[in-house]
Amino acid sequence: MTANRTTTSYALLGLLGLRPWTTYELTKQVQRSLGWFWPRAERKLYEEPKRLVEAGWASASRQMTGARPRTVYSVTRAGRRALQRWLGEPPAPPTLEFEGVVKVFFADGGTLQQLRDTLRVVAETSDARRAELDAKAVENDRGD
Q: Rounded to 5, what percent of the chain is helix, strand, coil?
């Protein structure tokens, strides 16, 4: 069953191929890793594992953490095959959504100061993202 499968479906299958996860753990892992280049709304990430189970690509098991129940998802053999097939397909062309560039594109409709402010924010955001990546590299080097 491949109807309504998205890149997010396959991304979650890839993560489930690493180990079983709860939806909360999957969401956090996407934010820590794939979110850098494949940002998704949390709501979508919480819904998709159920769809993978319906497709037979994942299984769900109920576990208890203390007094709280949780559902842990695992990839199935069919899910691994689906992921492998998808990995063999040509990727879609990249897309980029970047509001700062849209504002720069239309900057002649505003003031020079607005353009400068936009460029400053873009640079600050880029610097902050770079610092986050540098910190992750340090963590990785330490084995954290």
A: 60, 10, 25
